[in-house]
Amino acid sequence: MAQFQRPTLCCCRKVLTVPSKSCEGGQGLGQCRLVDIASASNFHCFKLRHFHLDLRLNFAVKEITGWQVLELVAIQPGVQTLVLDTHPSLLIQSIDCKVPGTTGAQDISPSLIYRVDPFTDYGSSLNISLPAYVIRPHRAFQITVRYTTTDGPAIWWLDAELTCGQTRPLVFTQGHSVCNRSFFPCFDTPAVKSTYTATVRVPEGVTVLMSASRSAYSKQDRVFQFSMEYPVPAYLVALVAGDLQHVDIGPRSRVWAEPCVLTCAVSKLGGSVERWLNVAEDLFGPYVWGRYDIVFLPPSFPIVAMENPCLTFIISSILESREFLLIDVIHEIAHGWFGNAVTNATWEEMWLSEGLATYAQRRITTEAYGEAFTCLETVFRLDALHRQMRLLGDNNPVSKLQVKFEPGINPSSLMNLFTYEKGFCFVSYLSQLCGNVKRFDSFLRAYIEQFKFSSVVAQDLLDFFLCFFPELKESCVAQREGLEFERWLNACGPPLCEPDLSAGGVLTGPVQRLCDLWASEPPDPEAIANFNLSSWSTFQTVLFLDRLLDRSPLSHEVMGQLSRCYSAQLDEMNAEVRIRWLQIVVRNSFYPDLPRIRGFLHKHTSRMYTVPLYEDLCSGVMKCFAAEVFYQTQARLHPNLRRTLQQILFQTSALSTPTGSVPSLLHPTPSSPSPTPRDQLGPADPPTTGTIALRDVNVSA
Ligand SMILES: [Zn+2]
C-alpha cells in the first residue's frame, strides 16, 4: 500500500484540479497518494477519455455479464502496468488491448497478462501488463475487460417480494463512495472524470435506466443504450432495472417508479420540480445535465436519495413525508451544480459537495418557500449536529471538515453530519463575509463556470473566493482570529460560527415554548392544550419530538401524559414523525405504546426506519421484543439489512448504548458484507454500531 500524502499539500494541487490539461507530462500528481484507491500510484499516468459498458442482466442468477472498453491515453512514457480498482465479487474472464488506427499485428487484440491483488476490505487491485508498443505517450489505446459481477457492494438485487409491486425482481446500483469498483473496473476516485456509454440487455418486460444524458431502446433486440455526454467520476455511474414506468412532469423531467407507486409519486412532485430547477438556475447558472429525472426505488434502497446525474435515485418510503421529500429532492437538484458539475477531488473533502449542496438547497428553499421555513429546517438539522457533537466529544477528528484517513479506511464511513452541516456553516460564513447573499450567489455562479466538469480541493474554492472578492483578500479575512479558514478546515469541534436563524423564530418559537411546558414540573395540561400539533408543519413536529428525545429519560408520569396527548394523533402522521415518537417510547421503556412499534416495524422495512429503532430497542430492555418482531418481518427485509439487524440483535450488548462510545471513523472498520449507502444514514452496515444513532445522522442526501 502506497504511502499517503495529502493531495492538498502537494505541489501538484492544480494538476489534481485540472488533470485533463495540466497533468500532461505527469508533472506533480504522481506525488499524490490517495489511500482509498489501488489505482492511486498509477491513474495520473493515463488519461481516461471514455469508457463503454456492454452488459447483460441475468435476474435468475443475479449476475451482470459483459465487457467494458476503456479508452486511454498514456501521458507518461515507460509505464508498463495499468492499475485499476476492482472487487473480489467481480470475476475477470479476459483482458485484451487494441491500438486504433494501427495495422498488422497491432490491430489484433492480444490477451493481456493481468493479476488481481488484495487491497482493502472494499476492493482489490487489478494490475494489467501493457505491451511495449502501447505505451507511447499521447497515443490512444483501448483495453477491453470481459467480466461477470454478482452481488458486490455496488449491486443490489431485489427479489420480487422486496419490490413495491412484488411481481418482478429489480436491481439497482449504488456507487458512492467506493462501491462501483464492484460494478466495473475503474479509477474509483472522484478526481478522475470521463464520459461513458452503455448497452444493456435485459429480459422482456424489464426497463433499464442509467445516470446518462441520452437513452434509446430497441424493442426488437430488448437492448437499452445510454450515453453520458458530460464527464463524470466513477461513483456517479448508476443503473436501475425493473418494472418501471414513467410520467412526464415537466419539459425536462419525468418521474419513474413501479406502477403501484407512480401515481402517488407524480401527485407529490408534479409541477414542483421544474419550479425548483428554475429557481436553482436563477441562483447558480444553467443546469448543465440536460435532463433531470427521478426514479423511486423500493424500501430496500439503503439510503434516502442519491444525486446520480440526470437521474436522482430516491427511496419511495419518503413519499409519505412531504416536507422531507421536498428537501431531499431539492438537495439532489443542488448537487447538479455542487458535487456533480464540480466535485470534491478526494473523499477527505466530501464537505465540498455536501456543504455546498446543503447551502445551495437552502438558497433554493429560501427563494421558493421563504426564510422562516428554511431557518426551521436548518435549526432542526443543526440540533442534530449538536446532538452528534455531544455523542462524539469535542475532539473527535470526524468533526473536521478536512478529514485525514489511514490506509484501509472506507471513505463512506466519513459521511456524517459535519460533512453537511459544518460544511454548510463554513459556506454560510463565507457568504456572510462578502456582506450580501446575492453577491455570494454570483460568486457561486462564477465558481461553477470556472470549475464545472472538474474536481477540486478546498484550496481551489478558497483561492477563487479571495480572487473574486479582492477587498476581502486585502483585509486578510482568511486569517481573522478565531475564524481562520485553516481553523474552519482543520479544527475539531462544532462550527466556528453559525448563521443567524432568527427569521425562523415564528416557527421554532412555539416548538420551544411547548418543550418548555413539558419540562416544567408538573407539566400544565391546560397550557399544553393550547398547542395543536396537527396545525404544525412536519419540521416543527420533528423538532419538538427530537428535543423531547434529548430530554429522555422522562418520568413515567410524563410519558403517560405525553402518550395520552399525542400518541393517537401522531399515529396518523408520516413516518418521519412517528419514528421519533416511537424512539421516545423505546428510550423511556414505555410499554403501553409497544404495539405501535410492532405496527410500525411491520409496515416499514427500510434501513432508515428499522435500524434506529432496533438499535434503541436492543440497547434498552426491549431486546426480546425486537427479536420477536425481527423474526416476524425478516422475510420482507433485504438480506443486507437482515444481516445488519442480526448484528444489532445479537452482538450489540456492548456496542449500542445511547451513551456508548462511538468508534473512530478514521480507522478501518471490520469487513462489511453490505454496500455503502449514501448521503446519510452512514454505511449500510454502520461502522457505528449504534450510537451515532442513524436518526442523528439522518441528513438527507
Ligand atoms: Zn448530498
TrEMBL record:
<dbReference type="GO" id="GO:0006508">
    <property type="term" value="P:proteolysis"/>
</dbReference>
<keyword id="KW-0479">Metal-binding</keyword>
<dbReference type="Pfam" id="PF17900">
    <property type="entry name" value="Peptidase_M1_N"/>
</dbReference>
<dbReference type="Pfam" id="PF01433">
    <property type="entry name" value="Peptidase_M1"/>
</dbReference>
<dbReference type="InterPro" id="IPR027268">
    <property type="entry name" value="Peptidase_M4/M1_CTD_sf"/>
</dbReference>
<dbReference type="InterPro" id="IPR015211">
    <property type="entry name" value="Peptidase_M1_C"/>
</dbReference>
<keyword id="KW-0482">Metalloprotease</keyword>
<feature type="active site" description="Proton donor">
    <location>
        <position position="420"/>
    </location>
</feature>
<dbReference type="InterPro" id="IPR016024">
    <property type="entry name" value="ARM-type_fold"/>
</dbReference>
<dbReference type="GO" id="GO:0008270">
    <property type="term" value="F:zinc ion binding"/>
</dbReference>
<feature type="binding site">
    <location>
        <position position="331"/>
    </location>
    <ligand>
        <name>Zn(2+)</name>
    </ligand>
</feature>
<dbReference type="Pfam" id="PF09127">
    <property type="entry name" value="Leuk-A4-hydro_C"/>
</dbReference>
<keyword id="KW-0378">Hydrolase</keyword>
<feature type="domain" description="Peptidase M1 leukotriene A4 hydrolase/aminopeptidase C-terminal">
    <location>
        <begin position="506"/>
        <end position="649"/>
    </location>
</feature>
<dbReference type="InterPro" id="IPR014782">
    <property type="entry name" value="Peptidase_M1_dom"/>
</dbReference>
<keyword id="KW-0862">Zinc</keyword>
<feature type="binding site">
    <location>
        <position position="354"/>
    </location>
    <ligand>
        <name>Zn(2+)</name>
    </ligand>
</feature>
<dbReference type="GO" id="GO:0070006">
    <property type="term" value="F:metalloaminopeptidase activity"/>
</dbReference>
<keyword id="KW-0645">Protease</keyword>
<protein>
    <recommendedName>
        <fullName>Peptidase M1 leukotriene A4 hydrolase/aminopeptidase C-terminal domain-containing protein</fullName>
    </recommendedName>
</protein>
<dbReference type="InterPro" id="IPR049980">
    <property type="entry name" value="LTA4H_cat"/>
</dbReference>
<feature type="binding site">
    <location>
        <position position="335"/>
    </location>
    <ligand>
        <name>Zn(2+)</name>
    </ligand>
</feature>
<feature type="region of interest" description="Disordered">
    <location>
        <begin position="659"/>
        <end position="701"/>
    </location>
</feature>
<dbReference type="InterPro" id="IPR042097">
    <property type="entry name" value="Aminopeptidase_N-like_N_sf"/>
</dbReference>
<dbReference type="InterPro" id="IPR034015">
    <property type="entry name" value="M1_LTA4H"/>
</dbReference>
<feature type="active site" description="Proton acceptor">
    <location>
        <position position="332"/>
    </location>
</feature>
<dbReference type="InterPro" id="IPR045357">
    <property type="entry name" value="Aminopeptidase_N-like_N"/>
</dbReference>
<dbReference type="InterPro" id="IPR001930">
    <property type="entry name" value="Peptidase_M1"/>
</dbReference>
<dbReference type="InterPro" id="IPR038502">
    <property type="entry name" value="M1_LTA-4_hydro/amino_C_sf"/>
</dbReference>
<comment type="similarity">
    <text>Belongs to the peptidase M1 family.</text>
</comment>
